[in-house]
Amino acid sequence: MRWDLDALFPGGSGSEDFQRYLAEIREQLAGLKARIASLDETADLDRFCEIADGMESAIVKVLQANAFVGCLLAQNTADKKAAMLRGQVSEDLSEYYRLLAVLDEKIKAVDDSLWEEWLRDGRLREIAFVLNERREQAKEKLSASEEAIIQNLSVDGYQAWGNLYDRLVGDMVIPVEVNGEKKGLSCGQAENLFSDPDREVRKRVFESWEKAWAEKGDYFAEALNHLAGFRLNVYKSRKWEDVLKEPLMLNRMKRETLAAMWSAVEENKGPFVEYLNRKAKMLGLEKLSWYDLNAPLGKTERKIPYAEAAETVIAQFGKFSERMASFAKRAFENRWIEAEDRPGKQPGGFCTSFPDSRQTRIFMTYSGTLPNVFTLAHELGHAFHSHVLEEERPFNRLYGMNVAETASTFAEMIVADHALKNAKTDEEKLYLLDDKIARSVTFFMNIHARFLFETRFYDERKKGPVSVRRLNEIMEGAQKEAYCHALAEYHPLFWASKLHFYVTDVPFYNFPYTFGYLFSMGLYARALEEGRGFEGRYIALLKDTAAMTVEDLAKKHLNADLTNKEFWNSAARLCARDVEEFLRLTEKWS
Ligand SMILES: [Zn+2]
Fold first, then answer.
1. 345-390, pLDDT tens digit by residue?
2. 187 shares a domain with 69
3. d(CA 306, CA 173)
4. Taking ligand 1, which is a single-atom ion, which protein residues have CB atoms under 5 Å away?
5. Domain of residue 103, residue span
6. 353 sits in which H/E element
7. In this structure, is residue 394 part of a structural domain?
8. Residue 579 Cα, ligand 1 centroid: separation in angstroms?
């Protein structure tokens, strides 16, 4: 159950091979820097192709180094040498992005007709979409020197607000009384108690939780207003009027697609309202409150040994794709998965790829529960995505956030559905169904509320800073609308407690989640219809995830139009099917 990192670089954080590898990267980046600097807009195609090749081979190495350091730190959070290495590799990554920005500026200056000619060249045709996208985006931005000033100022004027938020949250203590004993909990610990079976516990934690966020509300409002203000000012300088321009660009999607998706979500909320009402009855309530949403229903105490989990995952993958199954088998056999349950490990799970070695590693803590099995399948789905992309050019592997969860959700769905069909007791079935539907509720309602809030907040922020009282109002309004007024109490301070509103690398860190979930559902629906016959098309789609817009991706591989509600409706209906089964299973509470 321990992964093998020595196969990549022997010796862990003390690896000499890795030191040599880092030195090679430095040398390569320095060479590229000189070559890019000497490139001018009339430079010949051969020199540009050489630079593009160099940039592709450099990103493969930098990402490989970054993945190695990430794995070292995850397996042992106290590894000081690994922490030092992290700093070095971060420096290389920043240098790489600086070089890309300089290159963008160079290609922006290339004459249009010459550029067209370049892209038709056999050496560039495959990566034409990505190169052209970079050039178009560079044109939409300010000059390189102006953008560089923004970048530099953002460290203390933008990122700093995000860092300050993290500090404030890290220091927060939520006072809670459990079994007569007073305790001070961290935010993460308090949040875990929202899935406590005892309603009194959930309610008390929630009251204390709201109070704690309210006490520091002015500070959070300050941070949120400045983050948004900075963004709006940058947009204004670039003459970008729509706050959604940047997030849509990063996700390679059209505004019409976003509108079609949300409208399908709105139209298909009915079953989820029924689910919330039924869950309320089962808990003896008239209506659920915010802190009841994660209350557990049913139960499963089944323990699944790791070897059995591996067998199940491989067998279920095999029903849809032989390649997926054999890939998973290879991952288990070659010890690509760190699954051991021991102290000193980072929490959570992730999948990271080592593109230079054409290998991946998965990190998680396996303690034998059913959700652990689903996580295993989820991460193997990510790994399979990286695996099929290894055959593509490095520039064609950097997919957007909205398609990042396609393969993982797909893989997880296969295994979760199998578990549901083979539930040992009604209690276990209820547990699994509730877990699955609660997830849909998150994407249909919670994420929708975040999107509504953020859109409205930005509208008001354009006119000036928004007060705590007003932020609470906007949030509660958004939640009521998104949850169709189905709850008794809401969480007005959610704008303060949710980290995603303060993330500085991606704006509107919400709709890509719902997109990804429904997109995978749409794919899964096709896979169910076509069985093994879907494999070829599925793999072809994954290979193209970073080489075109999402609209073109769906058109090419699914013959679907994402700007039309119909695609999203069919995916949403598939989610609603779980609710029908849930209502049947819990009929005695109707
Ligand atoms: Zn994932």
1. 887 889 999 999 999 999 998 999 998 999 999 999 999 999 999 9
2. no
3. 37
4. 408
5. 12-140
6. strand 350-354
7. yes
8. 24
